[in-house]
UniProtKB/TrEMBL annotation:
<dbReference type="Pfam" id="PF02743">
    <property type="entry name" value="dCache_1"/>
</dbReference>
<keyword id="KW-0805">Transcription regulation</keyword>
<feature type="transmembrane region" description="Helical">
    <location>
        <begin position="297"/>
        <end position="319"/>
    </location>
</feature>
<dbReference type="GO" id="GO:0003700">
    <property type="term" value="F:DNA-binding transcription factor activity"/>
</dbReference>
<keyword id="KW-1133">Transmembrane helix</keyword>
<keyword id="KW-1003">Cell membrane</keyword>
<feature type="domain" description="HTH araC/xylS-type">
    <location>
        <begin position="652"/>
        <end position="750"/>
    </location>
</feature>
<dbReference type="GO" id="GO:0005886">
    <property type="term" value="C:plasma membrane"/>
</dbReference>
<keyword id="KW-0238">DNA-binding</keyword>
<dbReference type="InterPro" id="IPR033479">
    <property type="entry name" value="dCache_1"/>
</dbReference>
<dbReference type="InterPro" id="IPR018060">
    <property type="entry name" value="HTH_AraC"/>
</dbReference>
<dbReference type="GO" id="GO:0043565">
    <property type="term" value="F:sequence-specific DNA binding"/>
</dbReference>
<protein>
    <submittedName>
        <fullName>AraC family transcriptional regulator</fullName>
    </submittedName>
</protein>
<dbReference type="InterPro" id="IPR018062">
    <property type="entry name" value="HTH_AraC-typ_CS"/>
</dbReference>
<keyword id="KW-0804">Transcription</keyword>
<feature type="transmembrane region" description="Helical">
    <location>
        <begin position="6"/>
        <end position="28"/>
    </location>
</feature>
<dbReference type="Pfam" id="PF12833">
    <property type="entry name" value="HTH_18"/>
</dbReference>
Length: 755
C-alpha cells in the first residue's frame, strides 16, 4: 500500500464507503420483508411501545430522584425562618440565601430535558422560589391550591405526578414532592413541571410511519397525545380503548378494523405508576411500504453503486490534489532520501523529521528560559556557590533581608492558593524595584510567608547605602501592607564580604524576625552580635503555681492577672531570647494539662479539640497574640468545667419538655433556644441520657401513649394518630410497626384476645 498512489487509495476507500451501506441496505430490506407479517408487526409495535414507556419512566424517575436528593440537602434549612417575602428582601444575606435556593432549582431543571419550570413553597409562607419568576409572592404566581388535592391519598414519602395545564396555557406533568422529616427539618413542597411535549418525544422515540401514541393515567385521563385538544380529557372514549384496557393482561397487542382500515393496537401498563401506554398503526400502510420497498431497493442499489463509483473517482482526484502539491513542494526544497513511496509515506517521514527538530528546539528553549537568577539566589541561600555567580552578584558586599508576613496563619485563612501565588509574584517584582541605583536586589520566596532579599553592593558604598537601604525597607513595609492588608516584619542581617557567608546571614535575619515577639508586628530590625552575648534567662514557676490555684477555684480574673504579670516580666527584660519566651509559655501549657489530668479531668474535648496547642503557640508572632490565645484557652477550660455541672440540670429540663409537648410539632432549634442551649448540645444530652436520638425519643413517647389509647378507649386509628401528634395515619402506622413490630390494629386485636 505504501507504493500505491494516494489517489487510487482514496478512490478504493470511498468506493467501499459507498458499497458497504448499499450491501447493508439490501440485507436490511430483505429482513424487513420477511418480518412484515401480522404477528411480527404486533410484536414490533409492543416492543417499541415498551421501549418508549421505559424511556419515559427512566426520565421521570431520574427527575424524581434528583428532586429527592435536592430535598435531602440542607439548602432549604437556610431559608426556613423566612416566613414572608419582605423578610427575604430585608438584607443582602437573606437575598443571597434565597438566590442559592433558586440556583439549586435551576440546576435541577438542567438535569433532565424538557423541564418547563420548578418552584419551592415553604409552608405557611407568602412567597415561592421559582425558576420562571425567581422569588415572588403567592399573589403574583400561579395558584398552588391544586397541590392539596394532588397529595390526597399519597402513600409513603415519595412525590406524586399530576397532569395539568398551567395558567400560561402550557400542558405539563407536575411532580409534587413534600419535604419530609426523614430528609429535612424544613416543611415545604417542591414542584417540578415537565413539559407534556417532552413526554410526547419520549413516547415517539421509536415511532415508525404515522403511528399514534397515547399516555393515560390509571383513571383513563389523557396525559399526552398527538391531538392536543384531547389532553386531560377521558381517553377511554376513543375507539376500542375501553375494550382493550379492560383486559386482564397488562400488555399486549390486538387487531381491529377502524374506518375500513386494519389497525394494530398495542398497550402496556406501567408497574410503577399505573399509567397506560397505547399505540396504534395502520397495517395496510405498513404492508404497502414493505411491498414497495423490495422493488425500490433493487433500483436504489444499482444507482448507488454506479453513482458511488463515479463520485469516488472524482472525490479521490479532488481531495488528493493539495496533498500531491504539498509533496512536490517539499521534495523540491529538501532531499529526505525517500524513494519508491507514495505521498502519505513521504509526508510521514517528513513530519517525523520535523517533529525531531521541533523537540530539539523546545528542549533548547526550555534550558534558555530557565530562571537562572532565582536558581542562583536559592543555591546561594543554601550555602552553595552557583557557577558564574559574578553575573548574578557582581559586587563583593552582601546583606540579607527577610520580609515575614505577620499573622501568617490568618493571612492563609483569608486567601486562596491562587491569590497567594499572585501576591508573591507582585511582591518579588516590587521589592527588587524599591532599592536605589547602586544596590542590586534579588528577591525569592523562602517559606512560611517569608520573602528573602539578597542585597549586593560595593564595599566602598556600604556606609553610605545604610540610610538608603532603610528608606527602601520602609517603602517595602508600606507597600506590602497596602497589597496584603497584613503588616510585615523585616529582619536585616549583618554584612557579608563573601558569597560563602550569605547562608549564615540568612540565619541571622531569620533570628532577627523572632524579636517580633517583643517589638511587635510591622518592625524593621537589625542584627547585633552583642545582644546574643548578653541574653538573660527568665523563669515563671511561681506564676504557674498561682495560675493552677486560680484554675481550681474557677477564678478567671486571677488567671488573667497572672498572665499580665508574666507578660510584664518578659517585656521588662531587654535581652530576653525568643526561645526563653516560648519555653515559659510551653511550660505553662504543659503544667496546665498535667494538672488537669492529675485531677482526673478529661482534656480531650477542651484541649485536644483545639489541635496541637504547642504548634499554635509557635505560630503566634507577638506577646499580644500569645496573651489573647491563653485568655481564650483558660476561658474555655473554666467554662467546660462549669458546663459539666450544669449538664445534668439541662437534661432534666429537656426530658420534661419533651414529655409535655410530644403531641405537638416540635421545632428542636426553637426548643433549644427556649431552654438556653445550642441545638447540637441538646441532641448530645438526650442521646447520653436516653440512648436515642431526639426524634426516636419523641416517637417512643407517642407510641407508648397510642398503646394506652388503643387498649383503654374506643377511638379510631385516625383519631389516636391525631391525638398523639401524627399528621397522617400512614406515618402513625409506619412508626408503630417500627417500634412494636406490628400495625396498631394487630396490636389491639392481640391484646384483646390475651385479656
Amino acid at each position: 500500500m505504501k507504493k500505491t498512489p494516494v489517489m487510487l487509495q482514496l478512490a478504493f476507500i470511498l468506493f467501499c464507503i459507498m458499497a458497504v451501506p448499499t450491501a447493508i441496505l439490501t440485507w436490511y430490506s430483505g429482513a424487513q420483508i420477511l418480518r412484515n407479517s401480522e404477528a411480527a408487526i404486533g410484536e414490533s409495535a409492543l416492543t417499541g411501545l415498551n421501549a418508549n414507556r421505559r424511556l419515559n419512566e427512566s426520565a421521570l424517575g431520574n427527575l424524581a430522584q434528583d428532586t429527592a436528593r435536592l430535598a435531602a440537602t440542607n439548602i432549604f434549612d437556610r431559608i426556613r425562618s423566612f416566613e414572608t417575602y419582605d423578610e427575604i428582601n430585608s438584607n443582602y444575606n437573606n437575598v443571597s440565601l434565597a438566590l442559592s435556593v433558586t440556583k439549586e432549582l435551576l440546576n435541577l431543571n438542567r438535569r433532565v430535558d424538557g423541564v418547563y419550570s420548578s418552584y419551592f413553597y415553604l409552608n405557611d409562607s407568602d412567597y415561592v422560589f421559582s425558576t420562571d419568576n425567581s422569588i415572588t409572592t403567592l399573589e403574583r404566581y400561579e395558584s398552588i391550591e391544586w397541590i392539596t388535592e394532588a397529595l390526597e391519598g399519597r402513600r409513603g414519602i415519595s412525590g406524586v405526578w399530576v397532569p395539568r395545564k398551567l395558567e400560561t396555557g402550557v400542558n405539563v406533568v407536575s411532580y409534587v414532592y413534600p419535604l419530609n422529616r426523614l430528609s429535612s427539618t424544613t416543611r415545604g413542597i417542591i414542584v417540578v413541571n415537565m413539559r407534556e411535549s417532552q413526554i410526547g418525544k419520549y413516547l415517539h422515540a421509536t415511532e415508525v410511519g404515522d403511528s399514534n401514541y397515547l399516555l393515560l393515567d390509571s383513571g383513563g385521563k389523557v396525559i399526552s397525545f398527538n391531538d392536543q385538544s384531547l389532553l386531560l380529557s377521558d381517553g377511554l372514549k376513543l375507539p376500542f380503548l375501553q375494550e382493550i384496557l379492560n383486559q386482564e393482561s397488562s400488555e399486549g397487542y390486538t387487531f381491529r378494523e377502524l374506518d375500513s382500515n386494519r389497525m394494530v393496537y398495542a398497550w402496556s401498563r406501567s408497574a410503577l405508576s399505573g399509567w397506560w401506554n397505547v399505540s396504534w398503526s395502520s397495517m395496510d400502510e405498513l404492508m404497502m411500504k414493505s411491498r414497495d420497498m423490495q422493488g425500490n431497493i433493487i433500483l436504489l442499489t444499482g444507482a448507488i453503486i454506479l453513482l458511488g463509483t463515479l463520485l469516488a473517482i472524482f472525490l479521490a482526484t479532488w481531495l488528493s490534489r493539495p496533498l500531491r502539491q504539498l509533496v512536490r513542494t517539499i521534495r523540491s526544497k529538501s532531499d529526505l532520501g525517500v524513494v519508491n513511496k507514495n505521498e502519505l509515506a513521504f509526508l510521514d517521514m517528513a513530519f517525523k523529521r520535523m517533529q525531531e527538530e521541533e523537540e530539539s528546539l523546545f528542549q533548547l528553549l526550555q534550558e534558555r528560559e530557565q530562571d537562572t537568577r532565582s536558581l542562583a539566589v536559592h543555591r546561594l541561600l543554601r550555602g552553595e556557590i552557583p557557577p558564574r555567580i559574578t553575573e548574578a552578584f557582581p559586587e563583593a558586599c552582601y546583606r540579607v533581608v527577610v520580609v515575614s508576613i505577620d499573622q501568617y496563619r490568618r493571612y492563609v485563612g483569608n486567601t486562596n492558593v491562587e491569590t497567594r501565588s499572585y501576591h508573591r509574584y507582585l511582591l518579588n517584582a516590587k521589592y527588587e524595584s524599591c532599592f536605589p541605583e547602586g544596590i542590586l536586589a534579588r528577591s525569592v520566596y523562602h517559606n512560611d510567608g517569608c520573602i528573602v532579599i539578597v542585597l549586593n553592593f560595593t564595599p566602598e558604598e556600604r556606609g553610605e547605602k545604610g540610610v538608603l537601604i532603610h528608606q527602601a525597607l520602609e517603602k517595602i513595609r508600606d507597600e506590602s501592607l497596602e497589597l496584603l492588608e497584613h503588616s510585615v516584619t523585616i529582619g536585616v542581617s549583618d554584612l557579608a564580604d563573601a558569597p560563602e557567608m550569605v547562608a549564615l546571614r540568612l540565619f541571622e535575619a531569620m533570628e532577627v524576625i523572632k524579636r517580633r515577639m517583643i517589638n511587635g508586628a510591622g518592625s524593621i530590625m537589625y542584627w547585633h552580635d552583642e545582644e546574643e552575648i548578653s541574653r538573660k534567662y527568665l523563669d515563671s514557676e511561681s506564676s504557674e503555681r498561682r495560675i493552677l490555684n486560680f484554675l481550681d477555684a474557677g477564678n478567671l480574673g486571677g488567671i488573667f492577672k497572672e498572665l499580665q504579670i508574666i507578660r510584664s516580666e518578659i517585656s521588662s527584660e531587654d535581652n530576653i531570647s525568643y526561645d526563653n519566651i516560648m519555653f515559659i509559655y510551653y511550660q505553662l501549657m504543659g503544667a496546665t494539662i498535667k494538672h488537669l489530668r492529675e485531677n482526673h479531668i478529661g482534656t480531650g474535648r477542651m484541649i485536644m479539640g483545639r489541635g496541637n496547642v504547642y504548634s499554635i503557640l509557635a505560630a503566634l508572632d507577638t506577646l499580644d497574640e500569645l496573651e489573647e490565645y491563653l485568655h481564650d484557652f483558660f476561658c474555655e477550660i473554666v467554662q467546660s468545667l462549669d458546663r459539666s455541672t450544669s449538664e445534668t440540670n439541662h437534661g432534666e429540663r429537656i426530658i420534661h419538655y419533651l414529655k409535655e409537648h410530644y403531641r405537638e410539632e416540635i421545632v428542636f432549634e426553637d426548643m433549644a433556644k427556649e431552654i438556653g442551649i445550642s441545638y447540637s448540645y441538646m441532641r448530645k444530652i438526650v442521646y447520653e441520657q436516653t440512648g436515642n436520638s431526639m426524634i426516636d425519643f419523641v416517637n417512643q413517647l407517642r407510641i407508648e401513649k397510642a398503646k394506652e389509647l388503643l387498649l383503654d378507649t374506643e377511638l379510631t386509628i385516625k383519631q389516636i394518630a391525631a391525638e398523639v401528634g401524627y399528621y397522617n395515619v400512614q406515618s402513625f402506622n409506619r412508626f408503630f410497626r417500627k417500634y412494636e413490630g406490628m400495625p396498631p390494629s394487630s396490636y389491639k386485636s392481640a391484646k384483646s384476645k390475651s385479656s
